[in-house]
Design a protein that fits this description.
By secondary structure, this protein is an alpha/beta fold. It has a single domain, classed as Purple Acid Phosphatase, chain A, domain 2, CATH 3.60.21.10. It is 27% helix and 16% strand. The protein has 7 helices and 10 strands. The strands form 2 sheets. It has a 5-stranded mixed sheet. It has a 5-stranded mixed sheet with strand order 4-5-6-8-7. α3 crosses α4 and α3 packs across α5. The termini are far apart.
């Protein structure tokens, strides 16, 4: 049976990604899908992209950090210092890495599940969701990026279950039709993968905390 592994925010953590793939042992017909933020914060953004660019069974939606690099590439959008460092690493004569990021979709519809980076606005059709919500949404207050207030996934009623990242938690965030699988690998916690067909969770511990700016991943 063809299997699908959906992986939480990787953030350049190639070594942990490879350990997770060893647990999953993908066959030639299996799929590996990432919830975005392949890049920034961790040590090996370029190597993570090399893997996704060369493996036809691998795919990803765009994350807010990936998208920031794309917007800078397109129009000089201001970057944070951590993003600017990665942008310089990814800049090549043929712009292959940035072109790859530019081509990433905001949504991957797997049929049984939808994969987005951050969230979906409840009550709005999938095709009408906006890019800022798809890459940044956490709560339903005036500030979509806020961490206090009603989480979008608590109010989201489907009908298709959503797998998302963006908002790291040591205990996975869950709503009636949504599962958050960013477990804070880049901050020293875990990299999590969800096998759609079995509902199995695969986890590997971070080898170290690559980004010390977050010392406590909220539950």
């Amino acid at each position: 049976m063809r299997r699908t592994l959906v992986i939480g925010d990787i953030h350049g953590c190639l070594d942990e990604l490879l350990l997770l793939l060893e647990l999953f042992k993908p066959g030639s017909e299996d799929r590996v899908v990432a919830v975005g933020d392949l890049t920034v914060k961790g040590p090996k953004s370029r190597e993570v992209l090399d893997l996704f660019m060369t493996q036809p069974q691998f795919s990803s939606v765009t994350g807010n950090h990936d998208y920031a690099l794309v917007k800078h590439f397109r129009s000089g959008h201001k970057l944070k210092s951590s993003q600017a460092k990665v942008f310089d690493e990814l800049k090549t004569a043929d712009d292959r890495y940035l072109r790859f990021l530019e081509a990433l979709p905001f949504v991957i519809n797997l049929g049984t599940h939808v994969v987005v980076h951050a969230g979906l606005r409840p009550g709005i059709r999938l095709e009408d969701q906006n890019e800022d919500d798809l890459t940044e949404l956490r709560t339903l207050g005036a500030d979509r990026t806020g961490r206090t207030g009603t989480p979008w996934y608590a109010e989201y009623k489907g009908p298709t279950p959503v797998l998302f990242g963006h908002w790291p938690s040591a205990q996975l965030r869950q709503g009636p039709f949504a599962i958050g699988i960013d477990s804070g690998c880049v901050y020293g916690y875990e990299l999590t993968g969800y096998v759609i067909e079995s509902g199995e969770l695969l986890k590997v511990h971070a080898l170290r905390a690559y980004d010390p700016s977050v010392t406590n991943v909220q539950s």
